[in-house]
Amino acid sequence: MALSGMRGLSVFISDVRNCQNKEQERLRVDKELGNIRTRFKNEKGLTPYEKKKYVWKMLYIHMLGYDVDFGHMEAVSLISAPKYPEKQVGYIVTSCLLNENHDFLRLAINTVRNDIVGRNETFQCLALTLVGNIGGREFAESLAPDVQKLLISSSCRPLVRKKAALCLLRLFRKNPDVMNVDSWSDRMAQLLDERDLGVVTSSMSLLVALVSNNHEEYWNCLPKCVKVLERLARNQDVPQEYTYYGIPSPWLQVKTMRALQYFPTIEDPDTRRSLFEVLQRILMGTDVVKNVNKNNASHAVLFEALALVMHLDAEKEMMSQCVALLGKFIAVREPNIRYLGLENMTRMLMVTDVQDIIKRHQAQIITSLKDPDISIRRRALDLLYGMCDVSNAKDIVEELLQYLSTAEFVMREELSLKIAILAEKFAPDLSWYVDVVLQLIDKAGDFVSDDIWFRVVQFVTNNEDLQPYAALKAREYLDKPAIHETMVKVSAYVLGEYSHLLARRPGCSPKEIFSIIHEKLPTVTTSTIPILLSTYAKILMHTQPPDLELQNQIWAIFRKYEGCIDVEIQQRAVEYLELSKKGAALMDILAEMPKFPERQSSLIKKAEETEADTADQSAIKWRAQQQNSNALIVTDQHPANGTPPISQLGPVKVPSRSNVDCDSADQREAQSNGTLTVVDPQPPSTSSPDLLGDLLSPLAIEGPQPAENQSDHNLGAGVKGDTIGEDALALAPIEEQMNTVQPIGSIAERFHALCLKDSGVLYEDPNIQIGTKAEWRAHHGRLILFLGNKNTSPLASVQAIILSPSHLRTELSLVPETIPPRAQVQCPLEVVNLRPSRDVAVLDFSYKFGTHLVNVKLRLPAVLNKFFQPITVSAEEFFPQWRSLSGPPLKLQEVVRGVRPMPLLEMANLFNSFQLIVCPGLDPNTNNLVASTTFYSESTRAMLCLVRIETDPADRTQLRMTVASGDPTLTFELKEFIKEQLVSIPTAPQAAAPPVPPQPQPTSPPPPSSDPGALLAGLL
Amino acid sequence: MDFGYPQNLSPEILKLYITQEGVRSSFSSKHVDRPVPNATLQVTGAVGWRREGLVYKKNEVFLDIVESVNLLMSSKGSVLRCDVTGKVLMKCFLSGMPDLKLGLNDKIGLEKESQLKSRPTKSGKTIELDDVTFHQCVNLTRFNSEKTVSFVPPDGEFELMKYRITEGVNLPFRVLPTIKELGRTRMEVNVKVKSVFGAKMFALGVVIKIPVPKQTAKTNFQVTSGKAKYNPAIDCLVWKIRKFPGQTESTLSAEVELISTITEKKSLTRPPIQMEFQVPMFTASGLRVRFLKVWEKSGYNTVEWVRYITKAGSYEIRC
């Protein structure tokens, strides 16, 4: 740097460096800034030398982190200076101090252009660097053509052309729309023919950017790329200065292969053959050597080559070669290399057919689990998880179990989850699965989530052969002196259900089992006590003939807990005590749990969720998805391969199995098993989704409507709105199959969950996750859509359109066209409820991933009950209101038949979950239910709604419902809404569908999805 | 407590007996003619802070009243916050065990006196002191009963009392700033400073700091007295006047040229003008020493010196 002769500058710098502390430095800098300001303001002007000196000082101060907000004019004016040192300062300071939006840059454009078109190549270089570094829109617009000309002109030195290529690359990245790239493919091809490797490297960078944007135009570059690779691989015509540790220009090799990966396939057989030759050469020629730099370079090339091989789906032979090579890598002691080896193996799993080859290295991978480096252990774990299948599951799971006791705490949860999943997926027999999970709980109880043991219980319940075995195992574990609470839960549950199957074995008499379980009672938390109580009740029930002593003991416990502060425990204690006094009736009530419906393992979902966090795990995820169905085969006799996880889809598609349940449902169910069965002895298998229930309801639409016009309007809107919704649901899965992008989890299920809560995931597939978060205030709502890109590449052409029904006014803020990799975009959506209606808004969402256009239509959870606000009314308020709203249209009454039978309490819970708050004690008849809420919409404002349900204790399938509010439409809509929630389909033979699966989750409402309007439309 | 005698172990006294000396060489085995202080007497004596048996040729007492003025004034000249914190510092060179009595023109003392002598207070201001704290030597029971400050002073220099005054403060200076912005790059600063203490007195070391924007490039000054310059490190115009007589005024007018910046002109934050000064023989509170009486058994004559000084604490004027 031309510092010589600038004494002031060097003195200043040494002053600053000599400062003892920050404060001194600040004072010195401020003093200097004051000095510079005075100098710049000097009327006499500055000599070029002085100007240069002060501008250098400014740059130095700027680099120290102080604000320099003046003197840009001087810097810019230096650009036009004739001498190199001054010009250099001008360019450097301008590109450091100014950003693309500064107005001063306009002043510079002309000078910069003069330099670019000028003949002095050092000036050209300076100018190109500036343009590349600033890369503003105006620069791009006005200078891109000149830069392009420089790039292809043959009269320039390679140095300039190199810079021109890089400059263009920067401009293109910044403003792809401004750059006119239409006709560049020929030029690019021409550039790749260049002899100078520097120019080729720069052009290759440019090509990568261009190709990643649009690969179709650049087909003609493909053979050229291969040729470049060939040239490098053969080391022909590579000058000494481009050879790095004996490897010919590794950067160019990597870039070329990267560019090749943007082309989907290579069709031309010759090119393909020669490319494979090159790859072969790379694969063969790479080895681990002593020199770190050489290793780094050659491995960079190698891994890029591996990625290319995977991309091209090469022959099996080549793949096996790759895996063999990676096998060599993971055997190396160097941790970096081992990490890379493991990671790439995990990636290789994505490609089919290599699993068997990878399996050969299993032992080596397992030793990697014991590596001192945690990142390597993680990779090894991922790899093991990914490569596991039926043949090696036993070994791998065994290894993992062993590893569990030594693993770090941070990894244990993930590890235990993975073990549970693998054991479930690939269990050769179920007793092994039970063994594994029990061991798992034993070894790492703290890290075993509830889902895992719920799942075990499900399996045991559903397989009779397994029950005695599981009970025996549980009994064995209980003998251990100290066991984890989760283990207590599982054992207690299993023994409660099935201990009678063991009764003949020694040490398994009811009394002994009771006493051994009861020993654990003081050690457990309140969440486990209810399970223990249920167990006691069951043991009591199974003791035939009744053992008085045992009975007294158990009763004593129940009595003790009758006054427990925990409601759950208290209720169970009271109920069990009363029930057990009834004697024989107990038998019926506490009968064995019915079988669970088959369902997708919630564990896998959970694993997917956790994996979504870690980068580059898509391979495993894909496989996990493919294997979902395998997992079910273990228990499910009819093969369900390829059935995407869809839920009820209306009449269009009838699923063979319904997968309607979610984690929370699982949990709730497993936890409430005891009570629910006691209170409601009837197995809840008669309930089912309301596929047909709604067929009956369209008639109701023709019910009395005071305002003819409005009702017509509503009806029309309803039909319209809902056909969209229904179509969307019906078509979505089909489209998705075409798209090969399948949603993770069921869309409908997520929607229903969101109807009850305000935030959650609306939609998820391998590329994107859409979450929502809503706030509801009166008739206004604010729904924020979180669009999260899960990939490492951006999602393009993102579009979101709200198809809102007439009663909602929606306003979606601008959705960005592209979502950057791994980023989340928030789009607030304002919703105003104009009128009461049950129609739902639909989000038409589409994006482009790679070449696939994915389009989904999602119902938005802006449903009627969101505009409720809970209100409790007292008897004094209720009755006058009730009376004042007399008769239709303000008060409607209907006898509803075919109601899903449920106890009153549960119905009350259901109402409460919709914010229809049940007011107990208002109705003298205990079989009746009275609820109230406030509904908000723009037309009705706040409106009190009152609901009364009269049930018949003799026949739970019918009830009389009376709904009253101050608005006829509201009354009608609300009545229909409640009806939808209550009605279920009769399992009549007319339903040609296969036996509808039981829906064992009484608290979750059937979806309000298939509207009568929609169905009507469907039928027409 | 040692053998039933209470002992005074305050560090000041113990220091007297902890003598650190180097290893005494056998050659210089001269008798140390330092009087070995009577340790027992000292630690068990009633007056812990004073040694007995002090003898001075000349008996002198110096009394300094040091006040610092804190002021915050708005640009229009109204006082937003103002108080004075003062200290009475003493330096005693007195023989024996003297008993001193100090009389100030404060309200409590004067009222008491007028009650005792049943005659009206002399015309003149009385000062109300807040938050008075005394040195430990002051006899508080006598202060409570007779409202007089009487004490046996320690030898040498000490701080007799501290006080604070919030009302009736005589400000020594008035500052009238006018700052005008002429366009984007020019400013005009006019500051007029008036001394309002007695004409015979004078202030020393007056420094006035006038803040200017960060992008100040050039300044031109015209001052009637003192010197002014721009200090970029603290972004202020610093105007120094070494000696400022009472009842006079002096002005500074400066033209400030700013450099244009790329950042949009922020609304300029204007910190207040700060001022430093010292005015001898002036008390902002108006406090005066009325008498200082010394009684000693031997009844020697003493010479008493009294001095007043007022300094600036944080003396700020918004502009």
Quick structural gist:
Chain A is α+β, with helices and mostly antiparallel strands and 1020 residues long.
Key features of this structure:
heterodimer, A: 1020 residues, six-stranded antiparallel sheet, five-stranded antiparallel sheet, 55% helix, globular, B: 319 residues, four-stranded antiparallel sheet, 4 helices, 16 strands
Verbal overview:
- Helix content of chain A is 55%, strand content 11%.
- With 1020 residues, chain A is an alpha+beta fold.
- In chain A, strands 11, 12, 13, 14, 15 and 16 form a 6-stranded antiparallel β-sheet that branches.
- In chain A, strand 14 (928-937) and strand 15 (941-951) form a beta hairpin.
- The N and C termini of chain A lie far apart (83 Å).
- Chain B is 10% helix and 46% strand.
- A 9-stranded mixed β-sheet of chain B has the order 4-6-2-1-16-14-9-12-11, with no helix packed on it.
- Mean pLDDT of chain B is 82; it is low at 29-35 and 119-123.
- The chains are: A alpha+beta (1020), B mainly beta (319).
